[in-house]
Design goal:
Layout: H1 2-35, E1 46-51, H2 56-73, E2 76-80, H3 88-96, E3 99-103, H4 112-125, H5 129-133, E4 136-137, E5 140-141, H6 143-154, H7 164-186, E6 188-194, H8 200-211, E7 216-220, E8 226-229, H9 250-255, H10 259-277, E9 307-311, H11 330-341, E10 347-351, H12 363-378, E11 382-384, H13 391-397, E12 401-403, H14 409-415, E13 420-421, H15 440-448, H16 459-470, H17 472-477, H18 494-498, H19 513-529
Length: 537
């Protein structure tokens, strides 16, 4: 009887949550239809294409940009959902602000037999993980997108080349490519508003359209709102690697500013880093707990041996975010590093990324923990540190070096005098305050002499980097205008509120003519008068 009561109570709770979600969505749709009334004269042969994503805040901010671009170009708004977009409620919300589903699987369905055969040929031709990473369709690189989709969707730390699921992702990728090609024979795409372009569907659309010179925009939401056009990479071809930030040109961009401006900007960077190193929460890195918090009890034994620390990454979170890596993925990096480290006479410690050991993040983090434990069992010389231990405690007790793939801690440890070794392209690549080996042989040498590495970091370089990485884009492309009132962001839990079933209610504010005028002025300036800048060659 107790079980029946519990199941009945759970069913009632589910029905209440569904009612709350449906009611909130209906109210929001009415709000959007009033804000962006449908124009029956719009023809959909010319479109602004936008991602189909259920993240409520991003969707609302994207809706502003999409509607402005649609009016400016005389286009309709369409979304894409080739292998996703199954939630009918979310689809109706998009339709309420004028974005109907346009690019779906039907655009390539007649070509399915041909594409299945193509996927089979590609799948059986792969001999190594590097072969997969270099996979191209009509010259367009897609292998890294397939690779990262595999890791994330299937929660695998590395790719298994004989896995039928990999073959399925390859098929989906060639299918997406063909669907877009067929769609563009009928539709003129004026612009794409993209989101998480590290994975196969969004990533392929982003790269194809950039190759075809279609503007691709990323909308940054938060207390500072701005639109940013995805950038080309002149050296390798922008369709191979789209950029949000020109991190590899930070120094050139900084030197292009007047000297007095450089002094001011370095001071901004210096103050930002000082606050972070003193334990303040840094909202710009999306961390809820400071890695430089209060020091705890001693973590290292006193045995006289050099200590080396490895800062880990999330095994499943798009490792191919930057232009190149010395290893195919984070797991292969760990295998190599732990094997070579085990041959040294040093004490090696590994610290997991704190976010990957948070039980609230579900199965992804359970898998992160399991993979880490499997690696440590295989390499017993490597010792695990608590993910919550303060980096200040680590540095104060004394370490000879820190190794990472491309972690944001690179400049932080360098500022504290610790040599840092990367194993990939990384946001610090333009500066000499880290080691940036470009071959596996060079990397192996740095592991062998990790106790003798030096750090000659210039604090001015680090302050400059911090400004460029966290402030430059907002200062140069940002705006005081915002689709949402700034009071919305005063609550640190604003994203938690909008993720609830009735979360749409939190996005409905009274119309503010001043805010609307500010948004229009910003868009007019950005899209008409503010040409997209690239670094000097």
């Amino acid at each position: 009887m107790t079980g029946l009561v519990q199941r009945a109570q759970q069913r009632v709770k589910r029905l209440v949550r569904k009612w709350d979600a449906d009611s909130s969505a209906r109210r929001f749709m009415a709000y959007c239809r009033k804000k962006w009334p449908w124009d029956p004269k719009v023809k959909y042969d010319s479109v602004v294409l936008m991602s189909y994503w259920a993240h409520k805040i991003s969707m609302f901010c994207n809706a502003h940009t999409a509607n402005y671009l649609a009016r400016r170009t005389g286009s309709g708004i369409e979304t894409y959902a080739i292998f996703g977009g199954k939630d009918a409620r979310v689809r109706r919300v998009y339709e309420s602000f004028g974005a109907r589903l346009g690019l779906d699987a039907s655009w390539a369905e007649p070509d399915r037999p041909e594409l299945e055969k193509q996927a089979d040929e590609i799948f059986h031709s792969l001999k190594s993980k590097w072969d997969l990473l270099e996979l191209r369709i009509d010259g367009l690189k897609i292998g890294d997108l397939v690779y990262d989709s595999y890791l994330r969707w299937f929660e695998e730390p590395t790719v298994k080349l004989d896995d039928p699921r990999l073959r399925r992702l390859i098929f989906e990728s060639v299918f997406i490519y063909r669907a877009l090609a067929n769609y563009r024979k009928v539709k003129r795409v004026e612009a794409l508003i993209t989101d998480d372009y590290s994975y196969h569907e969004c990533g392929i659309l982003t790269r194809v359209l950039m190759r075809e010179k279609v503007p691709v925009y990323f909308v940054c939401f938060g207390s500072q709102h701005f639109v940013y056009r995805m950038l080309e990479e002149p050296e390798t071809g922008y369709h191979d690697f789209p950029f949000r930030w020109e991190f590899h040109h930070y120094r050139k961009l900084f030197r292009s500013m007047p000297e007095e401006e450089q002094v001011r900007c370095r001071e901004i960077g210096r103050q930002h880093l000082d606050r972070r190193l003193s334990g303040h929460i840094d909202k710009m890195t999306n961390m809820q707990v400071s890695p430089f918090g209060v020091k705890t009890e001693k973590v290292f034994p006193e045995n006289g041996r050099p200590r080396i620390v490895v800062l880990m990454h999330d095994f499943f979170d798009s490792p191919h975010y930057y232009r190149w890596m010395l290893f195919p993925d984070f797991y292969e990096w760990m295998l190599f590093l732990f094997e070579k480290a085990s041959e040294t006479e040093f004490d090696w410690y590994v610290k997991p990324h704190p976010a990957t050991w948070d039980p609230a993040r579900g199965s992804l983090n359970r898998r992160n923990v399991a993979v880490t434990e499997e690696l440590l069992a295989r390499f017993p010389k490597i010792k695990l540190m608590p993910p919550t231990v303060s980096n200040l405690q680590i540095v104060d007790e004394g370490i000879s070096a820190m190794f990472t793939m491309y972690g944001t801690a690179g400049h932080e440890f360098a500022r504290l005098g610790v040599p840092v070794v990367n194993a990939a392209d990384n946001p610090h690549i333009a500066y000499p305050f880290n080691y940036h080996p470009t071959t596996v042989e060079e990397y192996a040498d740095l592991i062998q002499r990790a106790d003798r590495l030096t750090c000659s970091a210039d604090p001015e370089d680090i302050a400059e980097y911090v400004y460029m990485n966290y402030y430059y884009v907002g200062d140069h492309y940002g705006t005081p205008a915002n689709p949402l009132p700034l009071s919305f962001f005063d609550d640190p839990n604003y994203e938690v509120h909008t993720s609830k079933p009735n979360g749409y209610d939190h996005l409905m504010f009274p119309e503010d003519p001043t805010r609307e005028a500010g948004m229009k002025k910003y868009y007019d300036h950005y899209f008409r008068e503010h040409p997209q800048k690239t670094a000097a060659k």
